[in-house]
Amino acid sequence: MRNTLQGFKNFLMRGNIIDLAVAVVVGTAFTALVKSLVDNILTPLIAAIAGKPSFQGLTFRIHHSTFTYGLFINDAISFLIVAAVIYFLVVMPLAKISERRRSGETPTQDDPVLSDEALLLVEIRDLLAARGTAGQASEPPKGL
């Protein structure tokens, strides 16, 4: 029982789990902020230009069902704002960092350090690639 609890504690304390939890909390707070921006500022602004006081009241009825397409418009605006912020503040900067790393700029302190096993695997991969490009036909080992 103690080993199980220790294993569970180790699982929870891994960096990835904590980072994910922080990301969910920040994402939830950011979503509330964007929703407030859309509901309280952008929707009334766009609705004022379009001549309607609010998108929330935009509905139509078919038989006895009411479709609130105005709420969908609000949600679409929220999605576009969140997607734009993620693209411009996360995706583009990470792409630029990745491009710099590929171009051979000096590594930073945040670059991962390969273990001895990983370095050995890289060396084996490079040797196999060199062997394959030399035009040598390799035969599988006997007995396999």
UniProtKB/TrEMBL annotation:
Subunit (UniProt): Homopentamer.
HAMAP family found in the cross-reference section: MscL
Transmembrane segments: 12-34, 76-95
Residues in the signal sequence: none
NCBIfam families associated with the record: mscL
Job description of the protein: Channel that opens in response to stretch forces in the membrane lipid bilayer. May participate in the regulation of osmotic pressure changes within the cell.
The name this protein goes by in its record: Large-conductance mechanosensitive channel
A Pfam family hit: MscL
Recorded name of the encoding gene: mscL
Annotated localization: Cell membrane
Family label: Belongs to the MscL family.
GO molecular function, one term: mechanosensitive monoatomic ion channel activity
Membrane-topology annotation of the record: Multi-pass membrane protein
Keyword Transport attributed: yes
